[in-house]
Amino acid sequence: MNNRNIWQDYYAKALARPHAPRTAVAARLNHSGILTAIDCGCGTGSDIAYLAELGYQVHGFDINADAVSICRERFAKQQSIQISQASFDEFEYPDCGLLIANASLFFAKPVSFSRLWQSITQSLASGGVFAGDFMGVNDSWAEGYRSPITALTRQQVLALFEHYEVIEMHERDEPGSTLLGRSKHWHTYSVVAIKS
């Protein structure tokens, strides 16, 4: 099965999923006064749909053309939603009160991750919320994956949040499977944090 078919199968399954519970938590914690959200690696748009219902202006982006096509069709009639095809490096981050990066920051280029994180932090208003995942070094994708992966230690993840109040940080380090049912070892850090 080629890479394109894998992503198509993934998105077909992802369309059936509701928004992430962590996205609801993050939206409740946003005290920035800014109802603008960014969904990094938006996939099929489950979090976008939820945030738009809450009254957010949502900017979603994904590098995968299939994901972008699905979202553009799904949200064609909603003026409060903007969908872009872009990488982390290409996207222009607007000022926001909420930034979601569920299972996407793994795929940011390691060589430009520091610059990306600076862009994310600068885009978030004081009192705004980051909610997302980072890949740990024990993950089976951390080395030898088909594209470069940014894998971080616990200390490296915590260092990113020097100017934030970390509300929750959950570490997963266990065998599991992907959405498509393939076995792998997961090592991730899931973080919700409020920018100071």
TrEMBL record:
Keywords noted in UniProt: Methyltransferase, Transferase
All copies of domain Methyltransferase, residue ranges: 38-128
GO BP annotations listed: methylation
SUPFAM superfamilies: S-adenosyl-L-methionine-dependent methyltransferases
A GO MF term: methyltransferase activity
InterPro entries: Methyltransf_25, SAM-dependent_MTases_sf
Keyword Methyltransferase attached: yes
Pfam families named in the record: Methyltransf_25 (PF13649)
Name this protein carries in UniProt: Class I SAM-dependent methyltransferase
Organism: Halopseudomonas sabulinigri
